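Researcher: Let's try something more involved. This one mixes different molecule types, so please make sure each is placed in the same coordinate frame as the others.
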Amino acid sequence: MEPMGEKEFNNIINAFKAVHKEKESLEVSSNWQTNVMRTIRKNTIDQYQTAFFDIFQQFVWKIVPVSCALLLLLCFLMTQNSGLSDYEMAKLFINDPSDLSFISLYNG
Amino acid sequence: MTNESTITSDSEIINQVINGEINAFESLLKKYGDFVLRIVKRHIPGNEIDDITQNAFLRIYQSLAMYKGTGDFRSWISSITVRTCYDYWRKAYKSREIPMNAITEKHQKWLEQTMSDESMRSLKDKGGKREATELLEWALGRLSPEDRMVIELVYLEGYSGKETAELLGWSVSNVKVRSFRLKRKLKSILKTALNKK
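Model: All components are placed in one shared frame. Result:
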């Protein structure tokens, strides 16, 4: 077996170059072109849908803190109002003799 | 004149695609389809050619807005295609899906014959071609994806260090240092093939 010098190595590389170049002649189906266009069209539709969803999501997330604040405010107002109305109702009933008798009737 | 008009028509098509006319991309696909396919065929195994060519064109489509129109469109396309092939090998190496042939006496015989043969007689018969292809794949399978790309581009396709660097998006010095070291590495791999029992 002879040692692998520069010349021997170049001979091998030249042979490799030839087989590497021959790979180009490999037959493949032409379906890939149709598939590319189909994928591009599908991706574009998906992108539009994603864009709409993104806008919607952005809008929803912007509303969340406002709606939370509103909810808290409403809760606060409700507790305040309901406390007041109970008190006022009782006051109203006690001051009104007819209603008082009505209550007393109920209380036995 | 022809080159100028080609550039104009390419840039016109690119503008149309960027402005949302997807169907205009079909003319780029028809024009550069074979060119891209030839690059992919050289770097990718036969059963993956379809998928990788599709991926390359999808990348080209997605990157069209980034094409500045100053350089050669063909070079820009080939750069994206070569990088798609490189990504394929990186993924294949990560998932360890590298086809490995065993080295037989036939391969060793072919190697010995080719070493002393300048006229490449060893490639004249069909068997010789098959052994050369298998041996090349075996040797490339022993290299990293980066080294594989440099061997293929510099040694097998004859690109210069600068051209290879542009195609892969690396620095010229990286490619030059790598290709210098690779010569020794490839020699050592081939010697291993020769001495394999």
